């Protein structure tokens, strides 16, 4: 039986073809084997409802607003992460656009190899 054709590795600039998302040399960069699932980290259905509600009440990115820019918020950030004892209470949340959320996450948690596929 024929197999599906290989596709380019999603790692920027990689010319290799693969059956997976990333080639063998880049797959370890995006592996999250040592990180528990989202639901085990506290991001379950209850969190999804809290997130939707929070974004309805806070539709704009607070970081962009500091620079007098109006940008729609896409993500809800925990000021104190759940892993560090934070909660889902409004006082611990902030609405951010994806770009600002990525910058903050990279600044405070540089070990995260967070990758969001293009087009989302």
Q: How would you sum up this structure, described in words?
A:
The protein has 120 residues and is α+β, with helices and mostly antiparallel strands. It folds into two domains: 25 residues, no CATH class; 70 residues, no CATH class. The protein has four helices and four strands, in the order E-E-H-H-H-E-E-H. The strands form two sheets. A two-stranded antiparallel sheet has the order 1-2. Strand 1 and strand 2 form a beta hairpin. The protein is elongated, with a radius of gyration of 18 Å. The two termini are 34 Å apart.
Shape: elongated
User: What is the average per-residue confidence, as pLDDT, rounded to a whole number?
Assistant: 85
Total of domains:
2
- The N- and C-terminal alpha carbons lie at a distance of 34 Å
Order of helices and strands: EEHHHEEH
Q: What's the total number of strands?
A: 4
Helices, by number, come to 4
Low-confidence stretches: 114-120
The biggest sheet, with number of strands, parallel, antiparallel or mixed sense and barrel status, is: 2 strands, antiparallel
Q: What structural class do you assign from the helix and strand content?
A: alpha+beta
Strand order in the largest sheet = 1-2
